[in-house]
Amino acid sequence: MTVGIRRLLTSNQRIRDAFHAALHRDADLDAALAALAPDAMLLNAPMGTGARDHDGLRRYLGTALLPHLPEDLAFRRITRTVDQRRVVDEDLVAFTHDRDLPWLLPGVPPTHRYAEVTAISIVGFRHRSHLGDVVSQITSHRTFWDLTGLLAQLRLSPSAVAAVATTPR
Fold first, then answer.
1. Helix, strand, coil percentages for the chain (3-state, nearest 5)
2. Strand partners, 95
3. How confident is the model at residue 165 (pLDDT cuts 50, 70, 90)?
4. Which residue, 70, 135, 150, 165, has fewest beta-carbon neighbours within 10 Å?
5. For the domain that residue 128 is a member of, what is the CATH number?
6. Which strand (E) or helix (H) includes residue 124?
7. Burial class (CB in 10 A: 0-12, 13-18, 19+), 93
């Protein structure tokens, strides 16, 4: 591996980690948005919540995510895989369902139960180079949750969650 590629891989990880810290540790919307390309997209699957483009991401992160993070939300990395265009993390995510979670379980009232679930996040990057300087930005952030495991731990029925999630708001 060349020194340049090693730097790029390290940069990808730093940008991803700064984005995650801005949201989940610092609650700093502007810092999170600074890591994103103007045409970036964010998706939380399988519920399909998220947004595309700068304005949509500002609204989504500022209204559906940041004000609705569980008090005890914690992440423990299980694995990380990095290449030139993406960072893939497998995390154990733990929290008490102490509030509405429109980004994860839209329309489902708090159960006040504790859950630990696996989430896989795939963060894609775009790189631009100008006079030897490489600027990298996140172009996509997709998170896939173990929804079945989460529903079982929160004692929620999949059909009830599907009915609530598909009800127009």
1. 35, 40, 25
2. 115
3. low
4. 135
5. 3.10.450.50
6. strand 114-130
7. buried
